[in-house]
Amino acid sequence: MKPSSPCGLCASVEISHYHQDKFRHYWQCNQCGLVFVDESERLTPQQEKAIYDSHENDLFDLGYRRFLSRVSEPLLERLKKPSNGLDFGCGPGPLLAQMLTEAGHRMALYDLYYANQPEVLTGQYDFITCTEVIEHIAQPQTVLTQLFSLLKPGAPLVLMTKLVIDKARFSAWHYKNDLTHIAFFSRKTFAYVAKIYDSEVEFIGNDVIILTKPEVPTAPSEELL
């Protein structure tokens, strides 16, 4: 048995079976380490959106604010006021964007289902947030390439997603049981991403990853030519 599609991050066809549960099979790319669900076992867009619609996203939920502060606090330490940011995959209740707006920054919103505004994907941003999103993406290479193209030089892309540790823990991992989760990253996978996009990677806690786009190389001074 083999997956019907190559790895969505690096396009490698060198793929190994990783795990199977009662719902689906999980595959791991031998090159970048991404663990993913094959196209043949993914939900339809309609099924996926129905699950998202059932989620409660209360902008006044203090527990949800504390959860998102794991992203906002290290990000705010890096930003100058006011900065222009994009919350990619903001969902129906864009609380993180509201928190960053409250802190003095300007936010644009994009979400395939809830804020489908393609015009915001043509700008340049001082930072981009992508929280609990990348694990839903079938073709993460396409999305990451797009997001890096929207970042200004030296700007951070801040992601939140749970990380794969090993097979034993994956087998009992609740995170994989959400059928909208189809791509699972590890530290190895994000190290691959950082190398491909020539970016710095920093891991904060168990689920926050900051990828910083490189600065544009400084042109040599005319005095030295």
UniProtKB/TrEMBL annotation:
<keyword id="KW-0808">Transferase</keyword>
<protein>
    <submittedName>
        <fullName>Class I SAM-dependent methyltransferase</fullName>
    </submittedName>
</protein>
<dbReference type="Pfam" id="PF13489">
    <property type="entry name" value="Methyltransf_23"/>
</dbReference>
<dbReference type="GO" id="GO:0032259">
    <property type="term" value="P:methylation"/>
</dbReference>
<dbReference type="GO" id="GO:0008168">
    <property type="term" value="F:methyltransferase activity"/>
</dbReference>
<dbReference type="InterPro" id="IPR029063">
    <property type="entry name" value="SAM-dependent_MTases_sf"/>
</dbReference>
<keyword id="KW-0489">Methyltransferase</keyword>
